[in-house]
Amino acid sequence: MIGLPDRIHMESELTLRRARRPRVPGLWAVAIGLALAGCGWLDSPATTLTPRSDFGWISHRIFLQILRWDTGIFVVVQILLLIAIFRFRERDPKAIPPQVRGSVKLELVWTVIPAVILTFIAFPTVGAIFRTQAAPPKDALRVRVIGHQWWWEFQYPDLGFATATDLHLPAGRPVSLEIAGADVIHSFWVPQLGGKRDAIPGGITRIVLTPDAPGEYYGQCAEFCGASHANMRHLAVVDAPEAFAAWAASQKEPAPTPPDGSPAAAGRDVFRTAACVGCHTIRGVSTGGIGPDLTHFGSRKTIAGGIFPNTPENLARWVRHAPGLKPGSLMPEQRLSDPEVAALVAYLGSLR
Amino acid sequence: MIEAGGADARAMSIVAHAAPHAEARGLASWLTTVDHKRIGILYGTSALVFFLVAGVEALLIRLQLARPDGQLVGAQRFNELFTMHGTSMVFLAVMPLSAAFFNYLVPLMIGARDVAFPRLNAFSYWVFLLGGLFLNASWLVGTPPDAGWFGYAPLTSKPFSVGPHSDFWLLGLLLLGTSSILASLNFLVTILNLRAPGMTFLRLPLFVWTTLVTNVLILLAFPPITVALVFLMFDRFFGTPFYIPAGGGSPLLWQHLFWIFGHPEVYILILPAMGIVSEVLPAFARKPLFGYPSMVYATALIGFLGFGVWAHHMFAVGMGPIADSAFALTTMLIAIPTGIKIFNWLCTLWGGSLRFRTAFCFAVAFVAMFTIGGLSGIMHASPPVDLQQTDSYFVVAHFHYVLFGGMILGLFAGIYYWFPKVTGRLLDERLGLCHFWLMLVGFNLTFFPMHFLGLMGMPRRIYTYPAGLGWDFWNLVCTVGAVLQGISVLVFLANVLRSLRAGAPAGPDPWDGRTLEWALPSPPPVYNFAALPTVLRRDALWLTKHPDARGPGLADPGALVAPVGAIHMPAPSHWPLLTALAMVVLVAGALLHLGVVIVGGLLTALAVLAFATELVPARADPGGHGGGVHEDPHVGATGLDHRKLGVWAFIGSECLFFGTLISTYMVYRGRSLQGPYPQEILNVPLITMSTFVLLMSSLTMVLGVAAIQARDVRVARRWLLATAALGGVFLAGQVYEFSHFVHEGLGLTTNLFAATFYVMVGFHGAHVTVGVVWLSVLWYLLARGRLGARDEALVDMAGLYWHFVDVVWIAIFTLVYLIQ
Predict the structure, then answer these.
(1) CB nearest B461 (choices: A43, A183, A229)
(2) Contact at 8 Å (CB) between B259 and B314?
(3) Are residues B292 and A115, on separate chains, in Cβ contact within 8 Å?
(4) Nearest Cα to Cα of residue A17 among A69, A65, A53
(5) Which of A84, A194, A205 sits opposite B346 (nearest CB)?
(6) Degrees (nearest 5) of the Cα angle B512, B516, B522?
(7) CA B432, B433, B439 angle in degrees (round to 5)?
(8) What whole-number percentage of chain A has pLDDT above 70?
(9) Is B180 a catalytic residue?
(10) Which one of A288, B115, B255, B484 is most buried, by most CB atoms within 10 A?
(11) pLDDT tens digits for A155-205?
(12) Please, where are the H alpha helices in B503-641?
């Protein structure tokens, strides 16, 4: 185990996954890993080294296996190289060393041994390929993951709503992510939940996984997709089953109506009369289909393709200067007065 | 009289004499040179300049990423920087640097006076240089390519890539691809045909072997990317839907075609460096390369397997478990020949007497660093692991260990090793070692932490990242390393400049070398060898200097440098440069105006014609035998005429070209979203007739070749004319068919069927047109007596080409018209 940013997750992971713990990696891998992890130098909320799903674990176990073989081969080769360098330095410039041309026996040895090692890697690899790409179980929660320039849309076809930027998943239940691209190719990746899959326009790809433990996991588009590729992030929020059910129930509701006369109500009027309605859906208010669905915008933790925390200040800046904050953004600068922006921010924040 | 070169034997009007054999000087002599050594120097210096440019781009990338939320460059500029960094390093720095070594060394190592086609060689260089300048001119007009060196569709398509960014990229790559393919068939023929007496395949220096395999890979891997770029060009300029999902096309077609080229390209980049290291290690260990035969087989095997692994770049696109498993296993297989090489290099050192010169240090570092890249490569061979690592910084670390730790270190080993041969002066060892250590430390500081960044989830190609993800520290380390590397390159440049002026004189053989080039003065004379060597054993020169019980390696070493009489060398020519310039006008026209394209096209056609007929005598030979293009030295070590071997190699390349076009047609069959569909519109009876006409033209072609072989020029001319006429009839049928289709509402952009059909059949038609022109020119030259009965090889070449074009049509006719 390398790099543990979060002890609590570690515990729950251990209880869930004890049966499938990886075998101990090579001594050297352990030593290097401990040295780096001990100092916290490999900690990241986006780490691939502490998987939080079955899918992630399958990859990680093979990674550790190969790392062990690799470390062994690396050590052998570099030690031989070092020995050769020091032992066979030129001593007498005139001396001609024995002109050895080769050895069939030795060459056979280093043909056969790597072949054997590769078999040890190939078997688990092929097994894992078929396991991770099996058809999703019947009770799997379907989520359509759609990559846009530059934000992620998440549709829950069985639950009847769509959201953006924050992906909610229930812990312990298989999910089937059906991934597609709306414009160019993107790639869906939440490192702690496992490997990536490309979001390809005109096709659907799939990841089936079961998240282990509640938590928030960092995600980011992994296929270069144009100007703001770096600004296409998202958060995967894994909820305990009850919390997920509650969240889903609230998301199913239409957008809450602000009380008359409140700033939020004024904001709704701004939303209706400004350019917003052309691109955004708020169920019950507008039906735009270009930008993210904002029906329950206030319940999200991040905005603007996951690049800012959802705070009123960030939202106000975003509404005013979207292209400045996110190069290439399709959302134009909004020429709104300060009170209008404030009202709009209040309204969007109220959409919980 | 001793002949050098091959196809250009006719141009050997310069008779070089023993003393002084003075080389022409001045700018003009460089612009018109066809000397492989000068072209090698041109390739090398141009490539180093492009290497510096691409290196500065890399430094800017690293400076931007040194801290979170970097503000040095914006998103757009960053995307341009990494696109141009990758594109330039691959196509403008490393490939041409390898070409510099091929050019300078291969003729010397195999005991030849020049390459098989010296003028074609110059042409390849000029196209490369102008292509590179064209690509970089995009900076000057402010629209450099910005969609990555891999240019994934549909990000490169018009809706997502407005402006000429991607046009510069695709047109530049088409130019560079042309240069590479022509250079590759030149080297292929050179190595097969120009080997000195006794230089059998298993006596070739390993560098020549890696050159051979590399050029076979170039020859076969560039046609698919050429086709892919042509499709992209049609999408962008004419609105076809090849890669557009809305039109039924698939962005994945681009990925497959790109990586069918792209993975062999990795070996195209690394094999030459492996060859260099396989020469440098034995020289400084004073031992033969360990396991030479298995090194040869491993090289060939890596090249062969390299064509079967492309989709391991595409595990994340979800190809399904069977394809994933297949490509995982083939990829793992490549580790076996690679491992063989590493252990053979180790054993080459083992028991040697190692002299730690700079060249040797670089070669040893190559082995150590390349091993790391190979080991992380095994991880990517396993799709479940690769899904975590692909498109993350882990992959950036991996391929820089292969490409920089392998290739660049290997190429520097080569530069330090052969610089004295090229310039006559040694590079300074103190500065050299300083360069070496700075580069090795800087390289590892830059790229090793990228493994960590990848495992910590940092994706590639992001221009910024927020603080708080744990990526800050390692990114800073990477940048520090990059700056160190930049300094090391400055040390290298200082070393080169100083040593050129005041380096210690090298003498012919400063390293006690093993291969033939070290038998010659430094720099070697224009004609290389006074007398062609006769090779008795592998490591010929070494065994001549240090004979063992089985005798020396060379029959008469003294003769190589003896005073010479007259040696014919190819005359300089301005047509390579002029033809390349015309091509650039044609290509740049695509960005400017249709008129420029037409002018450029005409100029190119005229230049090619002038180029092709430059060596044909201007007047009829009174003896009626034609000129001297038929001299015996054209027949090389394989017993085949160079030019015919060249045509065969070209046909091999063309098979891949048409194979890609036809495969695309087949893959896209039935995917048109709207009519007219093929079954509604194809006129099978008409095309059956014109197919028959084309087949008949193969018959007349055979009769023409038979006639010229029987020395009957008059009859041969008649059959050539008949062949051209039948070709013309076929073309007329095609013109009729195309206009009929357009009349029926099937424009180029109507649907996928139209796009694939017009491009495939159109390219075939263009080939037939070239054939008709070729035959007509031959007919004319024979009629005027400028070629004669003994020029049968020229007719034979045209015949090979013509039959090939007919065979392609049989495939197209069967697949498009008969099996609907």
Answers:
(1) A229
(2) yes
(3) no
(4) A53
(5) A84
(6) 70
(7) 90
(8) 89
(9) yes
(10) B115
(11) 999 999 999 999 999 999 999 999 999 999 999 999 999 999 999 999 999
(12) 540-545, 575-592, 594-613
Residue pair A232/A189 in contact by the 8 Å Cβ criterion: no
Angle between helix axes B321-349 and A104-132 (nearest 10 degrees) is 160
In chain A, the largest separation of any two C-alpha atoms, in whole Å, equals 100
Of B292, B332, B346, the CB nearest to A81: B346
Q: Which residue has the tokens 């020119």?
A: B777
**Which residues does residue A217 pair with via DSSP β-bridges, in sequence order?**
A236
Closest CA to A322 of A296, A290, A300: A290
- Those residues whose C-beta lies under 8 Å from the C-beta of residue B592, and which sit 6 or more positions away, are none
Three-class secondary structure of residue B135 per DSSP: helix
Asked if residue A13 has pLDDT above 70, the reply is no
Q: Which tokens is A113 given?
A: 């041994």
Query: For A4-138, where are the alpha helices, taking DSSP H only?
Result: 7-17, 27-38, 54-87, 104-132
Q: Is B263 a catalytic residue?
A: yes
Q: pTM for this structure?
A: 0.93
Amino acid identity, residue B6?
G
CB A212 within 8 A of CB A251: no
d(CA A326, CA A228) in angstroms, rounded, equals 6
- Residue B764 among the catalytic residues: no
The residues that bridge with B732 in the sheet, in sequence order, are: none
What is the nearest CA distance from A247 to chain B, expressed in angstroms? 27
* Sheet hosting strand B14-16, strand order edge to edge: B2-3, B567-569, B14-16
| Chain A residues 269-298 with CB within 8 Å of chain B | none
What gap in Å lies between CA A222 and CA A232, rounded to an integer?
9
- pLDDT above 70 covers a percentage of chain B that reads 95
Question: Which of left, alpha, beta for B512 (phi over 0: left; psi -120 to 50: alpha)?
Answer: left
Q: Is the peptide bond before B676 cis (omega within 30 degrees of 0)?
A: yes
B265 is catalytic: yes
pLDDT number for residue A352: 86
B262 CB neighbour count, 10 Å cutoff:
19
Pairing of strands A205-209, A175-181: antiparallel
B70 CB neighbour count, 10 Å cutoff: 18
| Length of chain A counted residue by residue | 352
Which one, of B730, B694, B713, lies nearest residue B795 by Cα?
A: B713
Which phi and psi angles does A167 have, rounded to 5°?
Answer: -100, 115
Cα angle B233, B235, B241 (rounded to 5 degrees) comes to 150
Q: How far apart are CA B781 and CA B787, in angstroms?
A: 6
| Residue located via tokens 């890539």 | B161
Residue type, B404: F
Q: Chain B: residue nearest A192 by CA?
A: B457
Task: Label residue B42 by pLDDT band (50, 70, 90).
Answer: very high
Question: How many alpha carbons lie under 13 Å from residue B337 in its C-beta half-sphere?
Answer: 22
Name residue B505's beta-bridge partners.
B425
What does the DSSP assignment read for A185-232? -EEE--GGG---EEE-TT--EEEEE-B-S-EEEEEE--S--STTGGG-
Q: What is the DSSP secondary structure assignment for residue B60, as one 8-state letter?
A: H
Amino acid identity for residue B2 in this structure: I
CA distance B149 to chain A (A): 11
Q: How many CB atoms lie within 10 A of CB B192?
A: 20
Q: Are A296 and A350 in contact (CB under 8 A)?
A: no
Residue B319 carries which side chain, given as an amino acid letter?
M
Task: Please tell me whether the peptide bond between B145 and the residue prior to it is cis, using omega within 30 degrees of 0.
Answer: no
Choose, out of A79, A118, A232, the residue to mutate when testing the contact with B (most B CBs < 10 Å). Answer: A118
Q: Which residues, including other chains, have CB under 8 Å from residue B352's CB and lie 6 or more apart?
A: A84, A88, A97, B284, B285, B286, B287
Helices (H) and strands (E) in chain A, counts: 9, 14
List the one residue out of A98, A116, A23 whose CA is nearest residue A62.
Answer: A23
- Backbone dihedral angles phi then psi of residue B470, each to the nearest 5 degrees: 80, 10
